[in-house]
Amino acid sequence: SPSLPQSVSRILSLGGGLKSLWKGCEINALRAGLFTGGSLTTYTLAKGLLSPPPLSPPGTGKDALEETALQHAAAGGAMGVVGTLMYMPADAVRGRVYNATPQTGTSARSAWAEMATEGRAIWRRWGWRGMWKGTGAAMMRTVPSCMAFPIVMERTRKEMGMGYYE
């Protein structure tokens, strides 16, 4: 496996200058936004459906019932499934963008055009299913981490006196 300096040198030698080191940052930003939007809204909704009602009316200063690690893990699992489904089309395009031959002088406009071109190529070859190719493998990576993350986050918030995430 090449070292980091060797990898950077190889990327730079393919053309495109320093900009080529950030090839694909646009698709990564899109992918991250899709995942975050889908996952956070799903976590909040799922946690609300799984959480018990408060012991006392809101605004009385009394705590709600204790949320459990199982509730957080289940809501996190739902978060992982929806987040993965949301980001998979961008992930499919990202793979093709990363593997495309570097072009010199890539601008933001041409990067978005390249994403559109690669998305159309996927659609033409595999149809809508191509946008979600590899979803099972992606879920095997994403869902377990999404189940663990809320347990740690919620327990840490509680220990710091911040209350549960709402």
Automatic annotation (TrEMBL):
Source species, domain of life: Eukaryota
The UniProt entry, under Gene3D superfamilies, shows:
Mitochondrial carrier domain (1.50.40.10)
Q: Extract the PROSITE patterns matched here.
A: SOLCAR (PS50920)
Membrane topology annotation? Multi-pass membrane protein
* Alphabetical UniProt keywords: Membrane, Repeat, Transmembrane, Transmembrane helix, Transport
The similarity comment for this entry is: Belongs to the mitochondrial carrier (TC 2.A.29) family.
Name this protein carries in UniProt: Mitochondrial carrier protein
Instruction: State the species of origin.
Output: Triparma retinervis
